[in-house]
Amino acid sequence: MRFFPLEKLINLHDHYTRQFKIDNLQLLLIQRGGERYLIEARCPHRDHPLEVATIANGIIQCALHQYQFAIADGRLLHATEEPCRGLRTFELVYEGNEVGVMVDDGR
């Protein structure tokens, strides 16, 4: 496992949303209500990018088919078509003045 820095803490604020690509992982770093979350950046239903999704009250809603997921744990909350798996979530790691993620060297 290795630490991959994503952002300096000074740059984070509520309504912060930014996509990161680490090898084959596409991740979305979100800050809402003072809480930070790291989730996969594409909807598992039809692979639509979630950086254009609506985020409110702890829920991210995909813009394509309005699937809703809990940003804290990735649970699927609402499906408009066939059900899909939940979002993958990742634990944030803090090192010095940066927030990042631990990535498996084997990926």
From TrEMBL:
Matches recorded under PROSITE patterns: RIESKE
Pfam families, A to Z: Rieske
Keyword annotations from UniProtKB, A to Z: 2Fe-2S, Iron, Iron-sulfur, Metal-binding
Domain Rieske intervals: 2-101
InterPro entries: Rieske_2Fe-2S, Rieske_2Fe-2S_sf
Gene Ontology MF term list: 2 iron, 2 sulfur cluster binding; metal ion binding
Protein name listed in UniProt: Rieske (2Fe-2S) protein
